[in-house]
Please model this.
Amino acid sequence: MTTLTASPPADLRAATTTAARTAHPYMNPYLAGLGLGLVLLLSFVVMGRGLGASGAFTAVVATGVNAVAPEHAKANEFYAEYLGDGTTSPLMDWLVFEVLGVFAGGLISGALAGRVRIAVDRGPAITDRSRLILAFFGGGIMGIGAKIARGCTSGQALTGGAVLNLGSWITMLMVFAGAYALAYFVRRQWL
Amino acid sequence: MSAPWYKFGLFGDNVSLVVAFVIGIGFGFFLERAGFGSAKKLTAQFYLTDMTVFKVMFTAIVTAMIGVFYLGWIGYLDLSLIYLTPTYIVPQFAGGLLLGVGFVVGGYCPGTSCVAAATGKLDGMAFLGGILAGLLLFGELFPLVSGFYTMTPLGRVTLPEFFDLSYGLVVFLVVLMAVGGFAGATQVEKWMAAKKGVR
Model:
């Protein structure tokens, strides 16, 4: 983990050094997995659906496009599906609220463990700037991939994996295949 | 049968949004606990030095899978009411590959990037910006790719249905695969650590 080279304010810098010193180790992976699995199971029992992430961002994009160019949005089948009949905002959506919870839960866990600090996570061989550009591009590729696959690692690999959905298992295996196939070529970013 | 509660009308749409937020908190909490707010920790999976992603993911899958299976078996949870995304073979092959490429290039997936951003990771925020840009690009190009997008549809289909095996047997096979995978993953971590030590 590398903190930003651009100088943050002195108090923030002091706070980050303290945080770095007192950051707790991560949870045992099997225990964290058990916790995650129980949350997912709870979601199936209470709602009849699993977890997701990318769908919430699609609702945000559809809302944005609709605000800027409503005619254009309505004419596009992809946005129109999220906009519905226009009586309720696409942001009043289950996944949008779930993702807001993900931000809150991540912040709670990070704060409790002393892991909240302004930083760029990267290997030693790359600059912050290049890392941020690659993060943006990776996010873009994943946004497109998530739409074509009908869900991302949360909605397909995790959720669909647990209910043995055929398409989810195809997606999950291809995620690992794609990542391992490309890992060598971007190793300078991480190693 | 009395679950899923929402589908049996125990509460309405407004309450479901509160439920969504609470479930999201649990999801984000355990993602961060596992170390998934860090791109280096996540991508170490693809360099075989730290197999936490596989271990966490498959423990979660196995936990929820066994829970759903038994709750269905005792007649508490109506499995036919659980939402499954429809299967589209070719698009999901391609989409999965893109997700994998985006993962190792960007360092996160959509869910973990939220946790990264929430804990102050600027690269997590850049990744989130990228997702929005990618979705906008996809949305704008949708009329051109809609043919590919809807190719090879199979509808709602599970592994047991597709391979004509019993549900219980597939659950058992996935558990076996996961347990074998955990042992293998730990062994690989040891080899990689030893290799690093020799260097």
Observations:
- The first helix of chain B runs from residue 13 to 34.
- The two ends of chain B are 59 Å apart (CA to CA).
- Chain B has eight helices and two strands.
- The CA atoms of residues 37 and 120 of chain B lie 9 Å apart.
